[in-house]
Amino acid sequence: MKVLVATEKPFAAAAVEGIKKEIEGAGNELVLLEKYTEKTQLLDAVKDVDAMIIRSDKVTAEVLDAAKNLKIVVRAGAGYDNIDLAAATAHNVVAENTPGQNSNAVAELVFGLLVFAVRNFYNGKSGSELKGKKLGILAFGNVGRNVARIAKGFGMEVSAYDAFCPADVIEAAGVHAVKSQDELFQTCDIVSLHIPATPETIKSIDYKTVNQLPKGGILINTARKEVINEEELVKLMAEREDLKFITDIKPDADAEFAKFEGRYFSTPKKMGAQTAEANINAGIAAAKQINAFFKDGCTKFQVNK
Ligand code: 3PG
């Protein structure tokens, strides 16, 4: 079987080596398309492959049409909003993700960004500490749980809300479970977003929601840019000079946000999962899932069931 690694944002070299070892060790062939810049390169590379490993790369109906032999696509990571699931199902292609494999990397970046924010982006002026601050985690999945673990090390008071995770599971992790998203914003100094981009969550972080943060509140987004109503957040930040917004997913309205000097920061590229460890964990997990699919028909991590 021919397996393609198609990554516009490439894995660390050690991860590619590990993927190669797994794929070739199972008697399959590995081909690489890294740092591609044009869609045509992807459309050409998928023509004769049986499987694909991707990151945030877009697997659209057009890509699936071009990939005549494709049987499985594995998103090495958590969020699979970049795969057209309906089209994958229509093309009889199994779509999978690798949940949990890169979540520590994203969670650590949350704190890298947070310390930077509360120390005024290292501008030399006196900042504040995270200890004793109230942190709200929106969605208690793999990333949210790692954020909670690290926050406790900082001595923060941690609350969480997850529409799909029972309160007793959150409480069992030593985290205060609040009853609603609104309560999280009303009671926390900092809210960290870990929700996926779905029809229900897209643009859900809007003016009304964020305006509930107390004075000096910080919104941090390492999830998906689509969950933020950017137009409304720009309006709110213009009205409330106490609010900060930090993110590792550059918003479409980056230029508008950039006007809020000292209150806004975005990494130039999505950086959350950009560590050797995360690449190795997620990349090798993806390779193993593909091998298991071809060997035993295993579809444990299928997301288009
Ligand atoms: C994920 O969904 O796993 C993270 O957002 C990481 O995405 P990336 O592989 O594109 O960095």
Keywords:
single chain, 305 residues, alpha/beta, Rossmann fold, 2 domains, 7-stranded parallel beta sheet, 5-stranded parallel beta sheet, 12 strands, binds 3-phosphoglyceric acid, oxidoreductase, 3-phosphoglycerate dehydrogenase
Plain-language structure description:
- This protein is α/β, with parallel strands linked by helices.
- It has helices at 13-25, 39-45, 61-66, 85-90, 103-118, 142-153, 167-172, 181-187, 207-210, 230-239, 254-257, 276-296; strands at 2-7, 29-34, 51-54, 72-75, 94-97, 134-138, 157-161, 176-177, 190-193, 218-221, 244-247, 264-266.
- A seven-stranded parallel β-sheet has the order 8-7-6-9-10-11-12, with helices on both faces. A five-stranded parallel β-sheet has the order 2-1-3-4-5, sandwiched between helices.
- 37% of the residues lie in helices and 17% in strands.
- The protein has two domains: 2-101 and 275-296, NAD(P)-binding Rossmann-like Domain (Rossmann fold, 3-Layer(aba) Sandwich); 124-261, NAD(P)-binding Rossmann-like Domain (Rossmann fold, 3-Layer(aba) Sandwich), CATH 3.40.50.
- It is elongated.
- The two termini are 23 Å apart.
- The chain binds 3-phosphoglyceric acid (3PG).
- 3-phosphoglyceric acid is lined by residues 9, 55-56, 77-79, 102, 270, 272-274.
